[in-house]
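A favour between colleagues. Tell me how you read the following sequence-structure pair.

===
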Amino acid sequence: MKTEPITWGECLIEEGQTRSFSCGDIVVECRRAENEVILASRAVDDEEPDQPGSDAPSRWTRWAVCTGGDSVSLLPRLPNLPLLVEPEDPFRITPGAEARVFLRIPVSVAVNIQDPRSHELTFFPTETLSQTWFGETDSGELCYYLPSAVYRMPKEALDEAGVQAPVRIRNESNETLEVTRICLRVEGLAIHRKDARLWANETVVRFQGGENVSRIEVVAGPPPEAVGGEKIVSAPELKAREMVARTFRSLRKWTASLLDEGT
């Protein structure tokens, strides 16, 4: 079966047809049957799954859908937890200064269908992310851990399985901020496409110093690098565009004068 590079958006699949889409390290298989959508995923180097209905163990999932539809939409999906990332080269921000960095966020491939309104059937992660705990034992949060996913300049070439997320860090305290970890909350981010690259909204983090939490703002619209781009995934409605949360180090680590985890 011929595998084609993924194209985000609507994909026509005729009844009885199977199409295979590669995205990063995975391949997503989509098949249409009478009033059904049948889906599977595999690693790029794995063998193709047996066809639905064979005697082999099934790797396919079946979804009964309304009649009349002959297309699915493939859309990038951000992780469902905050991301704890570590710069390969930690850096410092002096009082009153700011720095702008870029994070690569791996996406999942979400399969949607108009049935009669848009509905997500399932999603397939392009990478397996490990989980970690950020914060205190009784007041922290579960995150995905991403080592070496922070860059000082945007990537000119980024594969279709990654979203670039700009983060502007402003040090509004009277102390030097050592950035060794960043906890990025992705629930308020949309995804924009510009010149075949994916971009998230810019996040502005204002570090307040000491035991204070940071003030976090999600900037509406695409970042400057993607002005004029198309929004292909909307962000969920948030109660407030600005929030407060620990971003760089935990309260316990602050008390111990260790600066390798998040306020």
